[in-house]
């Protein structure tokens, strides 16, 4: 069983539509065996950002050099995706590019009886060898999520369908300040909202249509009855 960390929240070719790993694009990592082959971490592990004393953003914040953009709870909701939205998009060629940089309300430790929900950013999308059921579909994609300065890999089922609460949003902002990490600027939110809008009314090339068909065949839950 993979080890999980308790997150503190109050109350195959290297080329695909997901990105070219060989050229350094990181929208999606392709792996042959499991996520640890690429990321060096198994699902549920955490990564902390190391900051040198006196030089990192946290120290600058203490000296008043780092300021947070004014971000009301309603503005972040424009780039916060639900479980149902991820289910609808998970077999689309634009999935990784569109969802990376968006936010979700997600569980960080499903091993405890009452797992906390946190506001988290989608850092990247990772392709696993084995697929799993996700709503009415199947997928082999998982998310690398970040809450302030820590990251964790979770499958798409960890994402909530409900909007984050005001207290969860407040906790996230406080965690971002403590980590010396800026929240998204209005310009960043507008740019991401544009990407989401384009994904809601997409146009596909023939190659992308072929990719969608191949995805549906690959993850078909049961063979068709041709009798």
From TrEMBL:
Comp. bias regions, Basic residues: 44-55
InterPro entries noted in UniProt: Plus-3_dom, Plus3-like_sf
Chief subcellular location: nucleus
Sections of the chain in a coiled coil: none
Compartment annotation: Nucleus
Origin: domain of life: Eukaryota
PANTHER family: RNA POLYMERASE-ASSOCIATED PROTEIN RTF1 HOMOLOG
Protein name in the entry: Plus3 domain-containing protein
Organism: Pleuronectes platessa
């Amino acid at each position: 069983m993979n080890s999980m960390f308790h997150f503190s929240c109050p109350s195959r070719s290297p080329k695909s539509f997901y990105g070219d790993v060989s050229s350094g694009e990181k929208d999606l990592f392709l792996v042959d065996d499991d996520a640890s082959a690429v990321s060096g971490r198994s699902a549920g592990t955490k990564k902390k950002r190391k900051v040198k004393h006196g030089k990192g953003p946290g120290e600058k914040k203490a000296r008043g050099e780092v300021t947070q953009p004014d971000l009301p709870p309603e503005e972040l909701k424009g780039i916060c995706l639900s479980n149902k939205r991820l289910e609808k998009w998970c077999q689309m060629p634009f999935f990784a590019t569109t969802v990376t940089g968006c936010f979700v309300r997600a569980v960080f430790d499903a091993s405890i009886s009452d797992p906390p929900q946190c506001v988290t950013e989608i850092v990247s999308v990772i392709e696993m060898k084995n697929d799993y059921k996700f709503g009415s579909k199947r997928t082999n994609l998982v998310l690398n999520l970040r809450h302030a300065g820590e990251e964790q890999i979770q499958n798409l089922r960890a994402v909530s369908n409900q909007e984050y609460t005001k207290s969860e949003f407040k906790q996230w902002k406080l965690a971002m300040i403590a980590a010396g990490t800026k929240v998204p600027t209005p310009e960043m939110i507008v740019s991401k909202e544009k990407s989401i809008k384009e994904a809601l009314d997409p146009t596909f090339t023939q190659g992308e249509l072929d990719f969608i068909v191949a995805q549906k065949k690959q993850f078909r839950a049961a063979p068709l009855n041709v009798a």
